[in-house]
Amino acid sequence: MGRVDSATAGFEAARAVADAVLYEGYLLYPYRRSSIKNRVRWQFGVLTPRTWTLARGPADAGVAGSAETWWQQTECLLEAPADAVVDCRVRFLQMQRRSVERRTPDGAYRPVDALEAGPRTELSFDEAVPWEFDVGFSVAEVLAETREVTLRADAGEDVEPLADETGRPIGRVVRGRAPVTVLLAVSASPCQARTPAFRLRVRVENLNDTFQVEASRDEALRVSPIATHVLLAARDGAFVSLLDPPPWAVDAVRACSNQHTFPVLAGAPGRRDVVLSSPILLYDHPRVAPESPGDLHDATEIDEMLSLRTRTLTDTEKREARATDPRAARILDQVDGMPPKILSRLHGTIRSRRPVPPHDRPSDGHDRPSDRHDRPSDGTGEERPSTPWWDPGADSSVSPETDTVMVSGVPVSKGTRVRLRPRSRGTDPQDAFLDGRTATVEAVLLDVDGARHLAVTVDDDPGADLHRWYGRFRYFFPDEVEPLVGEGGDAP
């Protein structure tokens, strides 16, 4: 990995998210070469040769990095004195072609698509090598003139011999890389603001300008930085959020021009010394979900689905996945060895956007006047809390485990048995098959519009216990159930 020794500790705070950007879409489930979606890879932050790109039409000028071009530009605001120092880290992947070759009787080697080497299967497939380069500069330096630095990922070739179970040589794996050369150009200009502030511009370009325009995309990728992104860390300075700027910086933020990438504040919330400029649109202070057990090369919101599906792969499919890429093999090891506790943690969670306030209710359980103020009704005669729907952890009065809703004069809560009477219109057609079946209420829920819903498990469903453990229920409005009074139900 290429590196210049000027990195700061601030970069480490953003490394997990930056690595997720680096490998986003690198290899997709089912992690096998034979999968069609793994034959079209490298979708974000690809800086192709200039002449090759222009021969295919005008370049897109948006901030998203899914459109291929030969350059990307980051502009962001920095509050700092002119002598402040900024560290810049450029990161990208260099494509590496992995070719499998069989040894012939005369000792020569012939390219093959696949080769069985004892317990291993080797496949010809493209891999990637990560690179990062650090360049430091002062604000005063790039105010005076543009700082240009050439960054180079060198060409190379590695050979790995292959043998059978007896140790007899049967072939080799050849990994070859073409050189990737990029230009980093950094400049700055002063902003008219109440505090010393500057607009930093960081431009990254593919310097290969001699590539044949008739070449295929696969060949162009060999000389292109992939998943290109930039990290900036300020010493004695603070960056301004481009998503939520302070009033004094609004006009200056509008003047920023970000092309094929977009900078956001990185690290812990409240921190403003690190920026991640990503070809994938993010929000300020992005983070990898703490529940995520490892990189699956996709958004963490679907870690559970990917993990469960990966577990269902056959032994033959897993063998192919392991032969496709070493990172695929690590994913299989990670998922196959995942404890049930970790797997269940992936099912979901609720996070409040601010700390839950202290409970403001007297010990006798009665509402204070302030507790009841401005609580609109949900249409059933009951009051609903006025807490904003996007902050579920901020109101302790909402409790699906203990809340009660009145149905035909009967209080219904968790544990109440009901008979299902789904509506004939305006509901899920599959609910019609449950008409007349009995169910048990698992929770009383409140939606964003203040309406109540009942989460239930169907009594004769053989998977009811599993659904209850996972929290996967069927949902009905209160007027779609009949409390089972006097029929073995818990309702009085």
UniProtKB/TrEMBL annotation:
Residues 312-330, 357-385 have a biased composition (Basic and acidic residues). Residues 307-432 are annotated as: Disordered. It comes from the Bacteria. This is Uncharacterized protein. It comes from Actinomadura rubrobrunea.
